[in-house]
Amino acid sequence: MPPVDLEAMLRDSGAVMHGHFVLTSGRHSDVYVEKFRILEQPEVLSALCEEIALRVRDLNIELVAGPTTGGIIIAFEAARQIGCTAIYVESEGGLKKIRRGAVVPAGARVLIVDDVLTTGTSVREVIDVIRAAGGEVVGVAVLIDRSEGDLGFGVPLFAAHRVEATSYDPDNLPVELRSIPAIKPGTRVSTPGVTAI
Question: For the domain that residue 179 is a member of, what is the CATH number?
Fold first, then answer.
């Protein structure tokens, strides 16, 4: 079977958009990845998770952990393809926790997964929770890596796909972004100046 063209799948799903976006971090970018265009299409999500499973096959993963909300689906599918159990890190009272009676076996080799990597905040939160619960974090894997340099996880980072994107401080925007109205993704279905590819 020929290899799957992940870039074409992402383009056809409409997940990668170009325009002027305000990211969750408050930074601005001309590229945005809408994770829900991936999560709503099982064939796209499965192909990306298959790529993750291939890249981490030598790590002897015993548990896959992901943050709520999107990370639940990713952790489930990655764990299914790796052949292990998934666990989910949720918010409760403003803190990240493992809930609902789930446990991390002492010393379990854990892969942390997430959807789109930009600043790494949610990944670091999951790493901290898993380590506090006694797990050994042996890698981080994401569907899409749009980060800008080493984020200091201290373990190998694997990405099913990489999207080149730059983010900017709101007070230091390039001219081309300043000329386009900024939108916070998820607030509108269709916006002038935004194209999905």
Answer: 3.40.50.2020
